[in-house]
Design goal:
The complex is a heterodimer of chains A (488) and B (481).
Chain A lengths: L4 H6 L2 H4 L10 H9 L12 E2 L9 H10 L14 H5 L8 H14 L11 E5 H13 L5 E6 L5 H4 L7 E6 L10 H13 L4 E7 L11 H14 L2 E5 L15 H6 L8 E6 L11 E6 L2 H10 L7 H11 L2 H27 L4 E2 L7 E5 L9 H15 L1 E2 L1 E2 L10 E5 L5 H21 L1 H16 L34
Helix pairs in contact in A: 6-13, 7-12, 14-16
Chain B lengths: L5 H4 L10 H9 L12 E2 L9 H10 L14 H6 L7 H14 L11 E5 H13 L5 E5 L6 H4 L7 E5 L11 H13 L4 E7 L11 H14 L2 E5 L15 H4 L12 E6 L11 E6 L2 H10 L7 H11 L2 H27 L4 E2 L7 E5 L9 H15 L1 E2 L1 E2 L10 E5 L5 H17 L12 H19 L22
Parallel strand pairs in B: 1-11, 3-4, 3-5, 5-6, 6-7
Antiparallel strand pairs in B: 2-8, 7-8, 9-10, 10-13, 12-13
The chains are: A alpha/beta (488), B alpha/beta (481).
Chain lengths: 488, 481
């Protein structure tokens, strides 16, 4: 947005800087989608949205539950007598039943290896609000957080914009599957300190966006011990916890803490129902801190973004239905596994590999063999081709601050089965076309592709079961863009 | 020692204030008509509980307004997935229309300028983030809502400079007072970025007249600073004079105004009685502010489930018209009964026509004209009279002796009990008071109880009185009081 000199003086620095992140060139993909959105019947040549990490696969289960539980709503005949009490309930502690249900859900998602305390459940405006709130509690303007890359593009806004806090990326490499090593953390920490940057903590996303992988116990223990040594905070964004669809299982930082010597006051979890349940519209963000002062402070701050009491009431009911929750979590995993398998198998057939993943609503696709040269510029070029010619809105690795060019995040859950087929067809066509056009390069690229395959980057799926039940009916893809997404 | 931020370790949240003693007293001993009839009555909570029957009747007739009914469930998925920070178009259209109706349709609001926020609490913070840098300041006429200290200052680093208003001219906001405050800010090296007014006023329960509004618009234009109008009590104006919004003033021919300086904060918490639903609105005439606030709204969007319900409810013209009228009627009756009862024992209030509270004048009950005396009196009211009212000093009032008393958050029975307690207390303290003009003290006791029962019928709202909810709540936890 262009600001006149007058406006610059009239408005705050926050209002006139770029730290909201929306002037990034990556939104070209979204604009391409917005102006030409795919529709199976009405616009079959349109751009397919594969940049949106949404989880719409289990709404049939949810709708069934809704029909069977009219007392979960304050607007039905069965629930109306609760309307007034709920409509006037603005207590920032949140409805007790809501906190209990969320705590129980978080426990189940972690395989019941941890019990979460409802009194530590603090609300926020989605995970977007939760991340910002945590930063406001832990850091002053000018302080910084270490964030392993590649990381969610929205962190630039959520962690930095209004807080004035900085991000110091800890670059992870494909050579070891983007593992977060102690050495990398130490190096990043020391470098920051030498530049007089005050590191206040580390933020991890587990399961990872964009990688779709989970952190193993060793890495988690290493992170906890690292922050304890340095006396800095560890914030674990676990919003994809229930999207783990095959082994290895999800391990929460809460679980790892249980049998470790560590300073619990340094550990905080960010959670949400946007990905695990598929409810981004309901703005259910959770801050869960093991530090009492942070819990108290975050709770006071939650006034700026409480969950609507109407929504608290609904979810309190839904998430305390043990049978429903158990069934939902199982089905969701199954369906994600199936979808993931269909995609990765389809890609494998044309020689495209993805990082081995078992979680998330996306996969991390390796397009390095298709780059003209291993540069961000070449990646951006390839990306524009994918958007404009292949007509898929995928997200380039550089938008996730990935230090190696050539990786792309591709969302697979936010579409119906037929659209999946169309997307795969387009990719196949593009890759095969590329091979034909570059005949003289064919040998080179094949050799390259083989090399990549040898380096532990084989795509694979560890899901041992395939599910035949049909998924969902085609749905109209409504025009959305991440310019407007609270979170992608 | 684990380091947290300065924001986290400071007192900017405002909750360490001594005023929360009243709330604590209520929480430990909340009034209940049958279970705890000697408990503390909550009169510090500006809630509008009078019209829920109307709302419930509407809900019964409109099951499609809910995502959870058979009639509405087919919208569940697309609504649950809808996280677009523009907000649902139907929601914005319905809110814009409602805002217009509340202003008698004298002005139209543009749905594309409707930006969501986490309640009015979130709206204020968002506006401060958009308009001011840390260390800059807003002018705020006193007395003002205590939550502003948190909403506008805490995480933003912005300062508030009070504009002194006095009872001798009914707390009018004068040009002189504005200028004086502006100068005072400059002397303290604070750059003033705007003026924040609440109209109708919390805690006064009054509205700003046309001349004052025009004078303010002229003032901010002269100084090239922003004008933020918190109009969250707009639909609670229950009698003459008619409410005048900033949105109307800027359309007037004799008003020259840079519209880029004008912003309105709105909410459904007071006008509809839905504080739990967290429906805050920022409405700015400045395109850059709309754009910036919209991006910031990601931190506090309205739940799409709630957007869906509100869109449906507020687009029903007949319901809305009826609701606004009924609400005013019930508020009028409640207010009239309250102020009349108090006047019978010689307690005056600032003459008000809006809000969910009265601004009660207890200056003559003070031992001396000091804030210490006000606090002393306040503690007596809490601990002996057992009413949680809010002392004027918590609103930064310049003069001791004023108290805000909420009247719309209780049923008729509780209100009766509260009034009886006040009257009993006042009569006990008769010697300390200036003699009443209306009645001689000796006849007062007898005539009071008789007149009370006679008059009650005139003022009571029809329908069954439901017992006040015993949900223990305190403003420590209120998003907004």
């Amino acid at each position: 947005m262009e600001f006149s000199t007058k406006n610059r003086q009239l408005l705050s620095r926050i209002a006139t800087n770029d730290r909201h992140g929306e002037n990034s060139p990556y939104f070209d993909g979204w604009k391409a989608y917005d102006s030409n959105p795919f529709h199976l019947i009405h616009n079959p040549d349109g751009v397919i949205q594969m940049g949106l990490a949404e989880n719409p696969l289990c709404f049939d289960l949810i709708e069934k539950w809704i029909r069977e539980n009219p007392d979960a709503s304050i607007c039905t005949a069965e629930g109306l007598d609760k309307f007034k009490d709920i409509a006037i309930y603005q207590d920032y502690h949140g409805l007790r039943e809501f906190r209990e249900a969320v705590a129980k859900f978080m426990g189940r998602v972690g395989g019941n290896r941890v019990t979460f305390d409802p009194n530590r459940i603090v609300m926020s405006g989605g995970a977007t609000g939760a991340n910002e709130t945590v930063i406001f509690c832990l850091a002053d303007p000018g302080d910084a957080f270490l964030v392993p890359s590649p990381y969610y593009a929205g962190f630039a806004r959520d962690l930095r914009w209004r807080t004035g806090v900085e991000i110091v990326p800890v670059h992870c490499k494909s050579s070891n599957n983007f593992r977060i090593t102690r050495a990398a953390l130490e190096e990043a920490y020391e470098k920051a300190e030498r530049s007089n940057i005050n590191i206040k903590g580390v933020i991890i996303t587990n399961p990872s966006n964009p990688l779709g992988t989970v952190l193993d116990k060793e890495t988690l223990r290493s992170l906890v011990s690292f922050v304890t040594d340095k006396n800095i905070h560890l914030v674990s964004d676990e919003i994809y916890a229930a999207t783990v669809f095959s082994s290895p299982r999800f391990i929460s930082v809460a679980e790892v803490m249980q049998d470790m010597d560590c300073n619990r006051d340094l550990i905080h979890i960010v959670y949400s129902l946007s990905k695990d349940m598929g409810f981004p519209g309901f703005r259910v963000g959770i801050v869960y801190s093991f530090n009492d002062d942070v819990t108290n402070c975050a709770r006071k701050m939650s006034s700026f973004g409480l969950v609507s009491s109407q929504t608290q009431f609904l979810l309190a009911s839904m998430l305390s239905d043990d049978e429903f929750v158990g069934n939902f979590l199982r089905e969701s995993s199954k369906r994600l596994a199936k979808r993931h398998h269909v995609f990765t198998k389809g890609l494998e057939e044309v020689g495209i590999s993805t990082i081995k993943s078992n979680a998330g609503l996306f996969f991390w696709m390796d397009m390095r063999p298709l780059l003209k040269e291993q540069t961000t510029k070449a990646e951006t070029e390839l990306w524009r081709v994918i958007i404009n010619e292949v007509k898929l809105n995928v997200s380039p690795g550089s938008s996730f601050q990935c230090s190696e060019p050539g990786w792309f995040r591709v969302c697979f859950a936010n579409m119906d089965d037929k659209t999946v087929e169309v997307a795969l067809d387009r990719i196949r066509e593009f890759v095969l076309q590329g091979k034909e056009e570059n005949n003289h390069e064919a040998d080179k690229s094949q050799a390259r592709a083989q090399r990549w395959r040898k380096q532990n980057l084989r795509l694979s799926f560890s899901s041992s079961r395939l599910y035949d039940e049909s998924l969902m009916s085609p749905h109209l893809i409504s025009p959305h863009s991440p310019l407007v997404r609270a979170r992608t | 020692m684990v380091a947290m931020s300065k924001i986290a370790t400071g007192n900017g949240h405002g909750e360490n204030s001594p005023y929360f003693d009243g709330w604590k007293a209520y929480e430990t001993n909340p009034f209940h008509p049958t279970e705890r009839p000697e408990g503390v009555i909550q009169m510090g909570l500006a809630e509008n509980q009078l019209c829920f029957n109307l709302i419930k009747n509407w809900l019964i007739k409109h099951p499609e307004a809910s995502l959870c009914t058979p009639q509405g469930v087919d919208k569940f998925k697309e609504t649950a997935l809808f996280q677009d920070y523009h907000g649902m178009p139907e929601f914005r259209q319905a809110v814009a229309k409602f805002m217009g109706k509340v202003r008698g349709d004298r002005v139209k609001f543009d749905p594309d300028r409707i930006v969501m926020s986490g309640g009015a609490t979130g709206a204020h913070e968002m506006v401060a983030f958009c308009l001011a840098d840390p260390g800059e300041a807003f002018l705020v006429p006193t007395p003002y809502y205590p939550g502003f200290d948190r909403d506008l200052k805490w995480r933003t680093g912005v300062e508030l400079v009070p504009v002194d208003c006095e009872s001798c001219n009914n707390f009018k906001i004068t040009r002189n007072a504005l200028e004086a405050a502006y100068v005072k800010a400059q002397e303290a090296n604070l750059r003033v970025k705007g003026l924040l007014i609440t109209n109708p006023s919390n805690p006064l329960g009054t509205i700003l007249d046309r001349d004052t509004l025009k004078s303010m618009v002229r003032f901010i234009n002269d100084k090239n600073i922003h004008l933020i109008g918190d109009e969250i009590y707009a639909a609670t104006v229950f009698m003459e004079p008619e409410f005048v919004s900033i949105s109307e003033i800027i359309e007037e021919e004799d008003v020259e105004c840079n519209r880029d300086l004008i912003h309105i904060v709105y909410s459904l918490s007071k006008d509809m009685g839905f504080p739990g639903f967290r429906v805050g609105i920022v409405y700015s005439y400045n395109d850059s502010v709309v754009s910036c606030a919209r991006k910031m709204s990601s931190f506090g969007l309205v739940s799409s489930q709630t957007q869906h319900l509100i869109a449906s409810m507020l687009s029903d013209d007949e319901f809305v018209d009826n609701f606004i009228t009924e609400s005013k009627e019930l508020l009028f009756k409640r207010h009239k009964y309250f102020t009349w009862s108090l006047s019978q024992v010689g307690i005056g209030c600032l003459k008000g026509n809006s809000g969910l509270f009265i601004w009660m004048d207890l200056r003559k009950l003070l031992k001396e004209k000091t804030f210490a005396a006000e606090m002393e009196l306040w503690r007596v009211i809490i601990n002996e009279v057992k009413l949680n009212v809010s002392p004027g000093s918590s609103f930064h009032c310049e003069e001791p002796g004023w108290f805000r008393v909420c009247f719309a958050n209780m049923d008729d029975h509780t209100m009766k009990v509260a009034l009886l307690r006040i009257r009993t207390f006042v009569l006990k303290n008769n010697e300390a008071m200036v003699p009443l003009k209306l009645c001689r003290p000796s006849s007062l006791k007898i005539s009071l109880s008789r007149s009370l029962s006679r008059r009650m019928d005139d003022f009571m709202s029809p329908g069954i009185m439901s017992p006040h909810s015993p949900l223990p709540q305190s403003p420590l936890v209120r998003a907004r009081t």
